[in-house]
Design brief:
By secondary structure, this protein is mainly beta. Helix content is 6%, strand content 42%. It has two helices and 47 strands. The strands form 14 sheets. The chain has a five-stranded mixed sheet with strand order 3-2-11-9-8, with no helix packed on it. It has a five-stranded mixed sheet with strand order 13-12-18-16-15, with no helix packed on it. The chain has a five-stranded mixed sheet with strand order 20-19-25-23-22, with no helix packed on it. Strand 19 (224-233) and strand 20 (238-248) form a beta hairpin. The longest helix is centred in the first third of the chain and has 31 residues, at 4-34. It is elongated, with a radius of gyration of 40 Å.
C-alpha cells in the first residue's frame, strides 16, 4: 500500500510534467504566430522634419494594429474621412514654438508616407514627413507661393512668397515682363493653358496655395504696346488680370464687351456680368510704358437660376455721315436708374477708320432712364439705347463747311445758326459779320466789343461741329409794348458760392465700404464727394449726390483713404461749386 507521503510526491511530479509540456506548447504556438498572418505590429514611428535644418522637431509612436508584411500608408488630413483608421492622420499644419508654424511640404522628395512591408521590429516602421517653418503674424494667416517658369525648359525663373489670409481669394498682379538672375528677359505667355493667377480659396497649408505663371524669352517690340485689363469681381473682392497684345504705341484702344458674361473658374456654379459703374473702357493713345495702359472693369457675380433685376443697356457708336453703328457694346443696370454715359473722344473702327466724338450732333442720346424689359422682349426696342455720334477727319483738299452760330450777348443763348459751304480742308477762313439781323420783332446788332467773338479759323478740319464761328449780338427791345428778358434784366444776377459742408464724418463699415455723413448746406442743389488714397487727391474719384449720408463702395482692403465734400447750385443748367469741407481720413480695414 502506498503511503500518503509517497503519493504526494508522485502527484507533485505529475503536475510539474504537465506544466512543462504546456509551457513548451505555448512557446511553440508563439513561434508559429510570429510567422503567421495573425501577428499584429504594435507601433509605427512618425518623424516630423524641418526641411531647412533637417532637424526632427517632433516624433511620436502610434499603435496601428496591422499585420506584418502588409503595406501601410499615412493619410493626409484633408482625406482622413476616407481612411479606415484616422490614427494614420498627418496634419498639414503644426503650430511650433517661438512663433513658428510648420506646414507639410506635399512634394518633398524625401517624404516617406508609405511603408511597403511592415516589419515585426517596430523600430524599422518609420513614417518620415518634411515640413517648412514659417513665421506668421496671425493665426488666420498663411502663405502663397508664386513661381515664374520658363515654358520651354520648365526652369524656375523666380519664386516669391507672401503672407495672405486663410480661406479667402488671392489674386496676384502678374507682371508682363520679368528678368532672371542673369538678366535674360521674359514676357508673359498669355496663351499657355497652365497659367493660373488666382487661388480661389487659400488653404491653411501654404503648399496648397501655388500660383504658377509661364513665360517665354523675349522683350517688348520697338513700337509694341500691351494693355492690361483687370476684371474685378465685386462680390468676391478679387480680380483676374488679362493682357491684350498685338497693339501699337500711339493707337487708341477700346474694349468691346458685347457679351454680357465672362468666363469664370466654375461656370456651372456662377456667371459674371459687366457692372455699369465701370467708367474707363478705352485708352486714347497707347504708351510704351505698360503702367499707363491699364483698364479696370467691374463684374458682378450671380448664381445660376437667379432672376437678376438688371436690364440690358445697348450702346451704339454711330457714323454721323452714314447713320450706321460701327461698334456696339452692352451694359446692365437696374430698372428706373439713370445712366449718364461718358463717350470716348476718339475710336478706331475694325476697318481702321478713326472716329472723333461729335459733341454738337443733336442726335446724341447719352443720358437715359433704364426701362423695365418684359421677359422675352427685344432689348433694342425698349428704349434702353445710348447713341453716340462720331465723325471722321477729312484730308487737305477735301470739301469743308463752317458752322456760324449767332449768340445773344445778354443771355448767352443761341438765336440763329447756319453752315457756309464751298470751303476747303486745310485752308483758313475769316468771316465778315453782318451789322444786324432781325428775328420776329427783335433786332440783333453786332456786338463788336465782345471778347468772346471768334471770327476766324486758321486751319479748317472739314467738320462743322469743330469749325465753328461764334458771333455775339445785342438784342433790342421788341417793337411791341410787351416786356422781354432783354430790357428787364440784361445781365444774370451774381450768385454766392455755396458754403463748405460742416461736421464731415467718415467711418469704415466693412473692408470695402465706408459711410460718409455731413451737415446740409442751405440752398444747395447737391453735393460732390471726392476721395483718394493720397493727401493730394491725385486721381481722386468723385461722386455726386443729393443726400447728406452716402456709402462709398469698392474701397481697397488695408488702404487709408482721404475724403472731402463740397456743395453746388445749378445755374442755367451748369453746376456752381462751393468750397471743399475739411479733409477726413477713412481708416484702414
Amino acid at each position: 500500500m502506498i503511503s500518503t507521503k509517497k503519493y504526494l510526491f508522485i502527484l507533485l511530479g505529475f503536475l510539474i510534467a504537465i506544466m512543462y509540456l504546456n509551457s513548451a506548447s505555448v512557446l511553440a504556438e508563439d513561434r508559429q504566430n510570429r510567422t503567421s498572418d495573425s501577428y499584429y505590429v504594435e507601433e509605427v514611428s512618425y518623424r516630423y522634419i524641418d526641411e531647412d535644418t533637417e532637424e526632427v522637431f517632433k516624433e511620436e509612436k502610434r499603435d496601428i494594429f496591422r499585420k506584418a508584411g502588409l503595406s501601410y500608408t499615412a493619410t493626409l488630413a484633408e482625406d482622413w474621412e476616407h481612411a479606415s483608421h484616422n490614427n494614420g492622420l498627418i496634419e498639414e499644419r503644426i503650430e511650433g514654438e517661438q512663433g513658428k508654424t510648420y506646414m507639410l511640404d506635399l512634394e518633398h522628395p524625401n517624404n516617406i508616407l508609405k511603408i511597403e512591408s511592415l516589419s515585426e521590429n517596430s523600430e524599422e516602421n518609420v513614417i518620415q514627413v518634411y515640413y517648412k517653418a514659417y513665421h506668421l503674424t496671425g493665426y488666420y494667416t498663411t502663405y502663397a507661393t508664386v513661381t515664374y517658369i520658363d515654358k520651354d525648359t520648365d526652369e524656375i525663373i523666380e519664386t516669391k512668397e507672401m503672407e495672405v489670409q486663410c480661406h479667402s481669394h488671392f489674386s496676384y498682379d502678374i507682371p508682363f515682363l520679368v528678368e532672371d538672375s542673369r538678366g535674360v528677359s521674359y514676357r508673359y505667355d498669355s496663351k499657355n493653358s497652365k497659367n493660373e493667377e488666382i487661388v480661389s480659396c487659400t488653404k491653411e497649408n501654404a503648399f496648397r496655395n501655388q500660383i504658377k505663371l509661364y513665360y517665354k524669352k523675349g522683350k517688348l517690340g520697338e513700337n509694341e504696346a500691351v494693355v492690361s485689363v483687370y476684371n474685378e469681381f465685386l462680390n468676391e473682392n478679387y480680380y483676374r488680370k488679362i493682357f491684350i497684345e498685338g497693339l501699337t504705341v500711339g493707337a487708341d484702344f477700346y474694349i468691346n464687351y458685347d457679351s454680357e458674361s465672362i468666363p469664370s473658374n466654375n461656370s456651372s456654379a456662377y456667371y459674371y456680368v459687366w457692372d455699369l459703374e465701370t467708367e474707363v473702357v478705352y485708352i486714347e493713345s497707347l504708351s510704351r510704358n505698360l503702367a499707363e495702359n491699364i483698364i479696370r472693369m467691374s463684374n458682378v457675380k450671380f448664381p445660376p437660376g437667379s432672376e437678376a433685376t438688371e436690364e440690358v443697356v445697348k450702346i451704339e457708336f454711330i457714323d454721323a455721315d452714314t447713320g450706321k453703328a460701327f461698334r456696339t457694346a452692352r451694359k446692365r443696370l437696374d430698372p428706373g436708374n439713370q445712366i449718364n454715359y461718358t463717350a470716348p473722344n476718339k475710336l478706331t473702327a475694325d476697318n481702321g477708320n478713326v472716329y472723333y466724338f461729335d459733341r454738337d450732333n443733336k442726335n446724341n442720346h447719352l443720358s437715359i432712364k433704364v426701362s423695365k424689359i418684359e421677359k422675352g422682349s427685344d432689348v433694342y426696342k425698349t428704349g434702353n439705347v445710348i447713341k453716340a455720334y462720331y465723325f471722321t477727319k477729312k484730308n487737305p483738299g477735301d470739301p469743308a463747311a463752317v458752322r456760324i452760330s449767332y449768340m445773344d450777348s445778354a443771355t448767352g443763348k443761341l438765336v440763329r445758326q447756319e453752315d457756309k459751304d464751298g470751303l476747303i480742308v486745310g485752308e483758313s477762313y475769316l468771316h465778315q459779320p453782318e451789322e444786324n439781323f432781325k428775328i420776329g420783332d427783335v433786332t440783333y446788332t453786332y456786338d463788336q466789343e465782345n471778347a468772346k467773338n471768334k471770327l476766324q479759323i486758321e486751319n479748317l478740319s472739314g467738320h462743322p461741329g469743330k469749325d465753328e464761328i461764334v458771333i455775339y449780338y445785342k438784342a433790342s427791345a421788341p417793337d411791341s409794348n410787351q416786356n422781354s428778358d432783354h430790357d428787364s434784366k440784361p445781365n444774370p444776377p451774381k450768385v454766392k458760392k455755396p458754403a463748405a459742408p460742416k461736421k464731415l464724418q467718415a467711418v469704415r463699415t466693412g473692408t470695402t465700404k465706408a459711410k460718409i455723413t455731413f451737415r446740409k448746406v442751405k440752398k444747395a442743389d447737391g453735393y460732390q464727394i471726392s476721395y483718394a488714397d493720397n493727401k493730394k487727391f491725385r486721381k481722386a474719384k468723385k461722386r455726386s449726390t443729393g443726400k447728406t449720408s452716402v456709402v462709398l463702395k469698392k474701397l481697397k482692403k488695408n488702404r487709408k483713404y482721404y475724403v472731402r465734400v463740397r456743395a453746388y447750385q445749378k445755374i442755367n443748367g451748369a453746376k456752381k461749386y462751393g468750397t471743399y469741407s475739411k479733409v477726413k481720413v477713412i481708416a484702414k480695414r
